[in-house]
Design goal:
The chain has about 130 residues and is α+β, with helices and mostly antiparallel strands. Helices cover about 35% and strands about 20% of the residues.
Length: about 130
């Protein structure tokens, strides 16, 4: 399943590139992340990132994704918003303001909320291979 991650706002490209670096550090996600470019504006030197697409094949991969997202947004100094969307349109939105002041139990609750994006993965096990052109 592909989960699309977007960060609305003027620093979107920088935020997504920073988040992608963090996600690629996680073994379960490495090789499963691609950038989705926005259309290049006339006169610009190229396209900016519009979103990240992360292919996840197991609940543990989504839990890893959720952990990275919460850790990343928790350390943002600006009031950042991040949206994670499944192909069926199910979306979870997390804000830095919501996460920054939480204790560890509340953070675990948000990770569980983000992990709910995998409800239809059931007990499917990830074989560790990068996805073939879905």
């Amino acid at each position: 399943m592909e989960i699309r991650i977007s960060v609305p706002g003027t620093a979107r490209d920088d935020d997504l590139r920073e988040l992608r670096r963090r996600l690629t550090d996680v073994e379960e996600l490495r090789g499963r992340i691609r950038g989705v470019d926005a259309e290049a504006r006339p006169g610009s030197l190229g396209a900016l990132l519009e979103a990240l697409a992360v292919n996840v094949l197991s609940a543990s991969a989504v839990t890893a994704l959720a952990g990275v997202v919460v850790s990343w947004i928790r350390h943002k100094t600006a009031d950042t918003v991040i949206k994670l969307r499944r192909p069926d349109g199910t979306e979870v939105e997390v804000t830095a303001e919501r996460v920054r002041r939480l204790d560890s139990a509340a953070v675990r609750t948000i990770v569980a909320e983000l992990s709910s994006l995998t409800e239809d993965l059931g007990s499917h096990q990830d074989d560790g291979r990068a996805p073939s052109g879905e």
